Each structure stands twice: as C-alpha cells, then as structure tokens.
Amino acid sequence: MKFYQESNTVKATSSLLEFTYHCDTCTYDIHFPAAPHPATEQIGVEVTLRGKKLNQQDFSRSPASIVISEKEETPKNGSRLTVTRMWGELDFIQEFFFPDGEAALYVSCGFAGNEKFPCQSMTPVAALKAPFHLANANAPRLLYVPYDNDKWIRYEAQKIHGAGASYEVTAVYDDDTRNGYVIGSLTHDHWKTGIKTHGGFGNLEFLRVVGGVADFVTRDEAMPHGPVWGKKVFSPTVYIGYHEDFRQGLIAFGNANNVFAPRLPWDGGVPFGWNSWACAAGKLDFSIYDNASTTLQSFEEKGFSNNGTVFINFDALWSNLSPEELRTAVDNVHSRGQKAGIYFAPFACWVKDFDRVADYTDGKYTYRDLLARDNEGNHLPPCDNGYPLDPTHPGNLMRVRNMMKFTVDMGFDYIKTDFMSHGACECVHYNPETTTGMEAYCYALKEMLACLDPKKIGRTIFLDFSIAPIFPYQFCHARRVSCDAFGLLDDTEYLLNSITYGFWQNNTIYSYNDPDHTVMYHSFDKRNCTLEEGRSRLHASVIGGTVLLLSDDYRVPEAEQRVRSLLDPRLLDIARVGRTFLPVETATGDSASHLYTRVDEDRNLLAVFNLTDQPAEISVDVSRLALPAGSGPFTPVTGGESFEGDHFTVRLAPADSIILEQPRS
Fold first, then answer.
1. Using CB atoms within 10 A of its CB, is residue 121 exposed (0-12), middle (13-18) or buried (19+)?
2. Residue range 284-300: average pLDDT?
C-alpha cells in the first residue's frame, strides 16, 4: 500500500484498493479497481456517546492527527491509517487497516480517555450516498443474514428494494456475474452488529453498520442494547471487501474473523452418530437409546463411522432415564467402542414454578433468582416458551460448572447446548462489569470452556451449539446451520436455505456446520417420509459440511430397513471429508438453491435437488457450475445414468435428489 498525504486528504493506493480519507469532512471513499462499479464516497460515522448522537459533521470541527504505519503485523501483515481528533476530554479515533494482497479493508472507530464512559451505539460505516453501487447488474441482490437460527428464521436474498437489516454480515452482489461486496463485523465481544439498508431500483440508497442493535430478531423486545463502558470503547471492526465471486468473499470474511478470534480447534474428524430428538423427543427411554447403539454398530458395514467410532447422543429429556439407567446406557455405548453425547440448555428454563430449586445449584438457588431481568426488575418475557436466565448470576454459573462436571465424570464426549440465544439477551446483569448481552454471553461461555479444558480433563469433548447466534463462534466446534430440520420435503428445503447462504461458516468460523438430525423414515410428530424424501434429507446433510447424526427409531423394522438401504459408503465418503458444497445459484427471496457443487482433489461433485412435490426436469448449464475442467460425463455417485454435454437435464421424482461426480485428470 502506498500512502500520499495532501493538505486535506490522505490517500492509500494499491492495484487492489484505492482509499481516500478527507480530513475536512471526517469521511472516506473506497474504490476497488477490479470492480466494474463506481467508488463508494463520503462514508461517515455515527455514534451515541453518553446518550448524545454524533456524526462526522460534529467530529470534523476538530483538526485531524494522522499516523501511518506501513508494516503492521496485527491482526495480519498490512498497513494501518489512524486518525485522531479531540472531542472534549476524549480522543475520537478512526482506524483503517489494509491487509496485504487483499481487495479489502478493516474499519473501526472509538473513543479513549482517562475515565470510564458509556457508548450506546457505534457506526464506523455510515454510507449514505449510493453505497456499493452495482453498475449494469442483471440480477442485483442483497443478502439478509439472520442473527441466530431460532423459530425457523430464514436467510433471504432480495432484489435491493425497500428497507431491511442483516445481522453481522451482508453481501451486495450481482447473481448473474456473482461479483460484489461483502461487508461484516470481525469482532463480537461487546456489540450485536446490524447492517441497516435501504434500496430502490436494484441499488442501495444507504448502508449503516451499527454496533448496538437490539430488536425482535436478536430476541430483545424487552430491553435496548446495553451501553459499552470503558476508558477505551471501540466499535465493531468491519470488513469491507470486493470479490469476483461473492461466495468466495463470504469464505474470505469467515477466515478474516479467525484472525481476530481463532475457532475452537478440533482434530477428531466429522462426527458420525445418532441423536434422539427427532425420533423420540419426550418419549426418550433406555430402550430406544440402547437399540440405536446396537443398530449403528451394524451400520458400520455400510461405512457409517469416522475414525473408528460413532456418537450415540441424548437430546432433551434424557432425565426420563433413572440415574441407574443412564449409567448403564453410557457404559453399554462405551463397551461397544462408541462415544456418548449429552444435552444441556445453559441459559434458559421452562419451569412455571419459579420458586423451584434450580438444577445443579446444590439447593442454593431457585429459578426466580436466576431469571434475567429488565430495568424495572421484571423478568424478561419467554422466547420459544423458555425464560432467559442471567448468564452472569452465580447460581447460573454454578449450574453450568456442575453440569460440565457431570458431563466429564459420566464420560460423555459430546455436548449439544441449546437455546444459547437466551444467554445473549439484553438485561440488567448480576455482574455489573457486563453491561451488554454479548459481553455476558462471552463471559459465561469462557467459564463453560474452562471446565472442559482438555489439559484439565484429559480429553476433548465435542461442543455443538444448537439454537445460537452465528457470532461469536469461538466457543464451540460446530453450530446447527438451521433450526430444527426433520425428514419431510419442507424440512429439507428449509435446511437447504441455510446451506445456500450459510455454507461459508463451515471450516471457517466453525469446524463443521451441523445440518441437524438426519431423519430418513419417521419424525416423532410427523407422517412417514417417502423414500425420496428420506434420500434428499440424507443428501442435504451430506453436502452440508457436516456433523452427520441420524435420528430414527430402529426398533421399527421399516425404519431400520429404510436407513440401511439409503446409507452408501460412497455417500459417506463425501460427508467424511467435512467440506460443504457451494450453491450454484442463489434464489430470490427466502428459497433454496437446487444445485450445489464441490471440488475434490480428483473429481467434481454436483448435487441436484427437486424441491417440489411434482416430478421435475432440472436443467444444468455446466458453464454456471464454475468447476475445473473435468474428463468425461457426470455420473451418479451411487451408480446410474450418466449426463454429458455443456447442458443436460436431470429428471427427478417429487422431493428426490441425486449427487453426481465427474472425474478430473
């Protein structure tokens, strides 16, 4: 990066990025030379300091002090521009980091002083003049990413018209050429970050990246976002990057996050196994669990294991078993060379009698003590029928520590933690040092991880978050990419919506996406799946990235036969790699793509889904797959008709799917 300083501007230029800071207006311009789009100009800032709203016009009245560092090594190799202005007794600071060799920059702003002070919100990117304009785009799209995966919320890719908000990250792209911009937050220890936009006629009118968002999507209808306090308070650090393929841009964004907070390491391979919820739910008992263990032993001949083992996991209501039954069940699993998993909801409760003694608190606390409360002392309203608990309350921390000790002592090797979003709700926390929901959430999760430190317990327990915010991510190995997904066509389509737009989380911020329990015959509260629905549900999990947990009741002969018939070693080899497929096309609105690809060392892979209840002919334009040159036709991985040519048609029965492969020389 080369810097040029003039009377009222500082310019930073390279072949990948042209940046101009205007000292007299406290704004900056960004242009990416490779982009066939104009520059985004006059990007400002907005903050709420001590309850007062300020923007670049307020700060521009003070002279700017410029510091340029051309050989930075933090957060990675690159250059940094720091602009400081006096604001009363505080310094107002803007920082711009330019990573070497990337068409991207990281932006933040903040205050520093000698005494602690509160900030209610911080917006380091306030682009109010035709931001990230897509010139001559045939299919302009704006990606809306949900904050979490509760209540069957969906990703959406809209035509850039009207107002909306994405959470933590968005993409502004042309779905025809795939080129576009990725904008998102890189730090997640204090703020919930929203990206507020308004568009019309295919282009944005404004875009604001706001640290301090709390609304019904973040499950915060009772309380506003808490203020961040400190002698130094900074906004979220924001990634702004241009990419010829926005899909690779999302992956780059995920990897950039890892520079700030590395994901939780895991070297045990993709977990294969079984989970109790879809098939048993509240009817979970010793019999169904033990039968699943013995049946999965027999599935090993189909290749259903990884690193020589599988996990047999309890979900909610494992307390149906007596302590003696639970111990026997776990011992049986271990005696078969398998690993056992358990379930816990650390930050939510469903009891109606709040005066009941809270589990795992040694009789010292009731649930009333632990409830998260607002400024008036009222407990927060339920979300998903569960009441949020204060994650910083000593009674809740005792619950967490004692449950982790129980997990370790019982020999469990897998924990599914659920309803995690409850722990990030804005409330008045017991610990006064945690003044935002995200601060409290991170505080409690650090305590939980400390209990599971492999150096202390002698093994690594796989930690899988179920209903949880996408960010922060560094406290678990996997996160469920969707809400509950069972075995019918609608479930598979819903799951694929999350894979279409959440594929990038796999192997970047998480080791694996979790596509939820893979049902191929019957879920506890639904009709039986058709054979085609079962196959598509398996295929959706296989391409997801992927934690691969089955969930059928094998005491039912038809269920065992169905699953055995669909498991194929060649499919399981694809899942075992643990890499997600990329969507070929995104879909307008909240639908899912019907084509997905992956490039392996020796082959190209293509998954094709019929997401309708009617027979379908799905056209494939090989040029749109963006795959390396292959040799020969596309052939079903499990055998069957081959497909050749630059264009071909795949005919599928209702709700059916197929995974094809093409050798590469």
1. buried
2. 98
Is the alpha carbon torsion for 27, 258, 600, 486 positive or negative?
A: negative
Ramachandran region, residue 640 (left: φ > 0; alpha: ψ -120 to 50; beta: rest): left
Q: pLDDT, tens digit, for every residue of 227-268?
A: 999 999 999 999 999 999 999 999 999 999 999 999 999 999
Give the whole-angstrom CA distance, residue 239 versus residue 252.
Answer: 10
401: Cβ contacts below 8 Å, ≥ 6 apart: 447, 448, 451
Please give the single-letter amino acid code of residue 568.
Answer: D
Interhelix angle for 394-410 vs 323-335, to 10°?
A: 50
pLDDT class of 208 with cuts at 50, 70, 90? very high
How far lies 312's CA from each of 89, 189, 274, 322, 412, in Å? 59, 34, 5, 18, 10
pLDDT at 587 over 80: no
The rounded distance, in Å, linking the Cα atoms of 308 and 538 is 21
User: Which residue segments constitute the domains of the chain, with CATH numbers given?
Assistant: 2-260 (2.70.98.60), 345-476 (3.20.20.70), 595-663 (2.60.40.1180)
What's the chain's Rg over C-alpha atoms? Answer: 26
What are 62-65's contacts with CB under 8 Å, separation 24+? 62/86, 62/87, 62/92, 63/23, 64/23, 64/26
Residue 636 burial (C-beta neighbours within 10 Å; 0-12, 13-18, 19+) = middle
HSE (CB half, 13 Å, CA atoms) of 13?
7
pTM of the model: 0.97
What's the burial of 159, exposed, middle or buried (CB within 10 Å: 0-12/13-18/19+)? middle
d(CA 284, CA 369): 30
Q: What are phi and psi of 306, to 5 degrees?
A: -145, 135
pLDDT digits (tens, 9 = 90+) for 108-159: 999 999 999 999 999 999 999 999 999 999 999 999 999 999 999 999 999 9
| Residue 60 CA: distances (Å) to CA of 23, 27, 211 | 7, 9, 21
Q: What is the DSSP letter of 643?
A: B
